[in-house]
Amino acid sequence: MGLRQIQELSAASTSKDRLGLFVHFFLFVLAAAYYAYQQVTVGDAGPLIFLLLGIVVLVPLERLMPRHRQNTFRRGLLVDLVHVMVTGLLSFLPIMLIFPLLDPIRMQSLVALVAGLPLGLQIALAFLTQEFLIYWGHRLSHEIPALWRFHSVHHSSEHLDWLAGERRHPVDGALMAFFVGVPLMFLGFDIVDLLWLGVFNSLWDMTIHANLGWRLKFMRGLWVTTEYHHWHHVVDKDIRNRNYAGALPIFDWLFGTYFLPRDKSPCGYGIDTPMPNSYLGQLIQPFR
């Protein structure tokens, strides 16, 4: 290849990169404007709150006690920002359209039974049931090839931080929401309760993906920590297909997928198959 061809290829690559940057920035601004409008009209800022919490709390912590030395403005950061703003909305819309249709066919006696329980017991029961469903929904997304095609988008990030956990395909997000939400609704829990559980999941999801070096040994085996979940993101399939729990490792204990060695630390994240570096490319990839 001659010098002129190299220069032409370099120019084309730069032009493509600039176009990709513009598209991602446009999608982010468009979604941010939508959520700003939501805040003004109905008082719900959506993901903007999570972004603010991440920037104010988690980014400084990642700088103070990093697990891996990496740049805050890493490769793929803008793509993950778009995932936060757009994917959540795409995953959420089908749920909001379908869940109200399920309400009339629920067993009202079961709904009344749950509503009659003390609030603390309701929360504990909903949380425990959710954790069981998250474990199996997550595990199936790894073990069923058709589901892994979508879930692999979430695992494709090679640099974990507070934002990387939000990278996921809308189909993957919607399927998990249905797998967890529909049984909880039929068990008698209200959609508002499910939304609060979703808020907790989103906050904790940011933390366990964060680039934090703490080991939190007092929580070992009792609660899903950053180190525990980072093992789930390594490239090695034998290790990656473990630690499915969302917050309670007890289900990994019970079903034989617990993995947390004392003498090693997780590293080498990502998947062993190609994944586009653009948002639209990641949306299309599972269908190829």
Topology:
Layout: H1 3-42, H2 47-64, H3 77-102, H4 108-115, H5 119-143, H6 145-155, H7 170-186, H8 191-209, H9 226-231, H10 237-240, H11 250-254, H12 279-284
Oligomer: single chain
How many domains? The number is 1
* Secondary structural class: mainly alpha
Strand content: under 5%
- The Cα radius of gyration reads 20 Å
Offer a few descriptive terms.
single chain; 288 residues; mainly alpha; 64% helix; 0% strand; globular
Give a written overview of the molecule.
The protein has 288 residues and is mainly α. The chain has one domain. The chain is built from 12 helices and no strands. The protein has helices spanning 3-42, 47-64, 77-102, 108-115, 119-143, 145-155, 170-186, 191-209, 226-231, 237-240, 250-254, 279-284. The longest helix has 40 residues, at 3-42. It is globular and about 60 Å long. The protein starts with a helix and ends with a helix. Residues 5-13 have low confidence and may be disordered.
Summarize the structure.
This protein is mainly alpha-helical.
